[in-house]
Amino acid sequence: MKPTELTYTLPDLAPELLEGPTWLNQRRQSLRETFNSLPLPRRGLQLWRYTDPSRFIVETASHAASVNGKFEAIRTVEQKHVAEGRLVGLVTDINGREIAVHGLDEAAKSGLLVMALSDAAKSHHALIEPHLYSLVNAQTGKFEAMNGALWQDGIFIHVPDGVVVDKPLHLLRQAGGVGSAAFPRLLVVVGKNAEITLIDEYGGGPTDDSAGFAYANGVVEIVADEDSRTRYVALQRLAAGTRFYQTHRARIGRGAHILTIPLAFGGTLSKQNFGVILDGPGAESQMNGLLFGSGRQHLDNHTLHHHASGQTRSNINFKVVLRDRALSAYTGLIHIEKSARGCEAYQENRNLLLNEGTRAETIPELEILNEDVSCSHGATIGPIDPLLVFYLNSRGIPEREAVRMIVSGFVADTLKHVPEDIRERVAAFVDERLGNL
Amino acid sequence: MADIINNQKSDLSRFNDDYTAKYGFHDPVDYFHKGARGINHEVVEMISRMKKEPRWMTDRRHEALDIFLSKPTPDWGNTKLLGEIDYDNIYYFMKPIERQQDSWDDVPDYIKKTFDRLGIPEAEKRFLGGVSAQYESEVVYHSMQEDLKKQGIIFLDMDSGLREHPEIVEKYFGSVIPSTDNKFAALNTAVWSGGSFIYVPPGIDVRAPLQAYFRINAENMGQFERTLIIVDKGSRVHYIEGCTAPVYSTDSLHSAVVELIALEGAYIRYTTIQNWSRNIYNLVTKRSVAHKNATVEWVDGNLGSRLTMKYPCIQLVGEGARGEILSVAFAGVDQHQDAGAKVIHAASNTSSRITSKSISKDNGRTTYRGLVKIHKNAENCKVSVECDALLIGEQARSDTYPTMEIDNNKVRVEHEARVSKVAEEQLFYLRSRGLTEDEARLLIVNGFMEPFTKELPLEYAVELNRLIALEMEGSIG
After folding, report:
1. Are the Cβ atoms of B395 and A370 closer than 8 angstroms?
2. So what's the pLDDT on residue B144?
């Protein structure tokens, strides 16, 4: 296999990207150089085995944003939820450029800080500088360097020590139209013993890729201090004409707990990478993923549990449902460091193939560098059990309904972890994709 | 200049004449008793000429050498150790004694002694079908029992196989593993020497296992066996290959190629126990093709070597074919066992099972690297993969990289892997029954390996248990 030759280099950064503090401008410049000096990732390695990295290089500089009706409808509903007190607040992010915060007045009194990242970089230097680029940076990879250099604006959330935000905060991101490129970025700092639930929703983009595609390259960094509790839901429901690349990293400290729920439904080509670094004894990470691919979607997901400290626990359950000619490539790595003794790590990947023509690739990897661990993974791939369908048929349930029931059952234990506010909507995505099967 | 070369050539050809008459093969230059270090087209030509091979084989060797030279060293796996191989410092061909022995009496004493230690004569007395003992690069002793011959079973060393059955060899040699497959397969194709050639005609059940012992015994000596086993319709065979080697001071490369062809309804089991000394690089390509309703089983034990990279493969190309791979890896001090299994389901109603057991001790490292692929048109396939790893010692490392590529939805694929240390409660239980901690640990390890050991012939199982006991001595640290 020959490496893809692609020599695209990032031109000088536009002046509007260099309006921040000096240290930030320097970081951007150096990340631009990193992007230009790094080759494309090698296809031979597990992480890129199934997805061509050159498809994530875009030369377009257009940032054309389009706000479609669906976005407005969801924004209206969510604003109503804020007003009703079901959500603590709503942040809208249009094409990684325009950040607007709704609600949150009450919560702000407790010290919860939600604002545009570009503003925070100027006004909250002490909070931003140590954390921005601390988890996703030049060492992470070429595309991460690209976001790091080019992000226009992002979202910054700070939950101070001891502050418990008891209702979810909804981040609603809107991709642009054909030919647009967005670099959304999120930085979350959760203090000691603090608690927050985030719904990070990515939508929009062209409805098909016949006229070209929209591109988004997102980064999420979550730094969670001792004994904090974080729930992070990534709902990816981008329209069919979008290419999406995303890297998420969370580092959790001693006794901290994090729940991560990657939900992947959209895009023509999507590669998402979710990683949690367990960095103190007693840290615990739970990941419940769900992917539903249809049409000719190519959905590539990676999960990482990096046990940097002993006495940590992690568990992943990643479910995949595929129909039509969709492809899912799932790679999951559990890495346990030499010094991290007494860890427990589990990983499960189940793939349900609804018809012929689907493709499921799975590589659940383990790298265990010390003996004092308990670690396992499992993966299954198969169609719906015809016996189950037969059983339901024999009870008078028509075939399509039977399939719907079985798939609902398959995804149920993931959905139960999804915050109530969007659970119905997520269930509706599953239902919608089961239509005309 | 041309004259000098011509003179030399005529000198050489005269020398050759004499040599041929005296020893029965071509050997133009004396030093080819041990060959020279390094690899080039001259070495390849020399090997082929000495063996009096047909032109097509010589051509294939040359072609393969070009492929070897053009392919980069793999950029995956243990790239550090792979990078340390010095291809120019290896002997690519070597002859320990001048020609093949026809009977046991002709085998030199010093070689016999080695075999005695391995237990060959006794084993043969007991039940073996035939012995093909390899000492250094060439087969030195080969016996085949009368009843095998009567049944039309061919069990030869590969060199003799090529001489006596060129039509079969030409048809199947490289058909499963072309030299373009990987760098080490190309190297083997260029310089292969020795190995086994087996052909079982249709409808024959070879009841006693066929065995070959391998042994490396010179410093910096490469071993490039080439094994080809063809089992015709409805026949069954069990082939056993085992090896042990003494410790040398510098690194040595072992790069075998094994091709198995199970025709319709045939059954092949290939058992290997690899216990090379801990300075040897064991980079082996093993692959089989199972036709309609055929079964191939690899039983693969890796105990020795510094670095082993070996992923026995089964291609299920006919309906109803079945594959099974059962492997054990043990990595002690400074060892890296990068082993695994590959199954390609290219036909419908095929099934496979992979069971991998690995033990990492001290700073040893085991890697399971597997592939299960189900082709688009292969329906109703069943796959189950199970990997268990046991870690003993704070520095031990275990990696699992299973890859599953499923292009058909009418499948049932299951994969499971577990990594753990020896459980404290198990140790406690055994100690409460009066066992010492050493004994308890050994018992647990033996139990862990049991699915593998129970598939081995008795004397191998006994030997394996003894080896494990040796490895486990003083393991409490």
Report:
1. yes
2. 56
Q: How far is B272 from chain A (nearest CA, A)?
A: 26
> What's the gap between Cα A434 and its chain centre?
23
- CA–CA separation, B266 and B321 (whole Å): 9
B280, part of any domain: yes
Cα–Cα distance, A285 to B303 (Å, whole number):
37
Buried-state track B129-164, b at ≥16 Cβ within 10 A, e below 16: bbbbbbbbbbbbbbbbeeebeeeebbbbbbbbbbee
pLDDT for B166 equals 95
**Are the C-beta atoms of residues B186 and B67 closer than 8 Å to each other?**
yes
Task: Give the pTM.
Answer: 0.82
Among chain B residues, CA nearest to A324: B409
The count of structural domains within chain B is: 2
Q: Which range of residues forms the domain containing residue B446?
A: 424-477
Q: What residues contact B151, with CB distance under 8 A and at least 6 apart?
A: B201, B204, B206
Give the pLDDT of residue A407.
93
B406 and B440 part of one domain: no
Q: Are residues B405 and B268 in the same domain?
A: yes
Residue in chain A lying closest to B411 (CA): A382
Report residues of chain B scoring pLDDT below 50: 1-2, 4-33, 96-102, 110-111, 114, 117-118, 120-141, 214-222, 244-250, 475-477
DSSP B104: G
Contact A375 B418 (CB under 8 A): yes
Q: What is the distance between the alpha carbons of residues B219 and B277, in angstroms, rounded to a whole number?
A: 12
Write down the pLDDT at residue A2: 40
Same domain, residue pair B309 and B387: yes
Ranges in chain A, pLDDT < 50:
1-4
Same domain, B252 and B265: yes
B25, B153 Cβ separation under 8 angstroms: no
Task: Tell me: ipTM over 0.90.
Answer: no
**Any domain includes B219:** yes
Which of A45, A366, A382 is facing B399, going by the closest CB pair? Answer: A366
Q: Are residues B369 and B453 in the same domain?
A: no
Cβ-Cβ contacts under 8 Å for A50 (sequence gap 6 or more):
A300, A327, A329, A361
**Quick check: is B269 in a domain?**
yes
Determine the 3-state secondary structure of B362 from DSSP: coil
Helices (H), A85-222: 105-110, 117-123, 125-128, 142-150
Among candidate residues B378, B404, B423, the one where a domain is terminated: B423
In a domain, B46, yes or no: no
Domain shared by B457 and B432, yes or no: yes
pLDDT for the residue B94: 66
Which residues of A are less than 8 Å from B394 in CB distance? 338, 341, 370-372
Query: In terms of domains, do B117 and B147 share one?
Result: yes
Query: Do B339 and B431 belong together in one domain?
Result: no
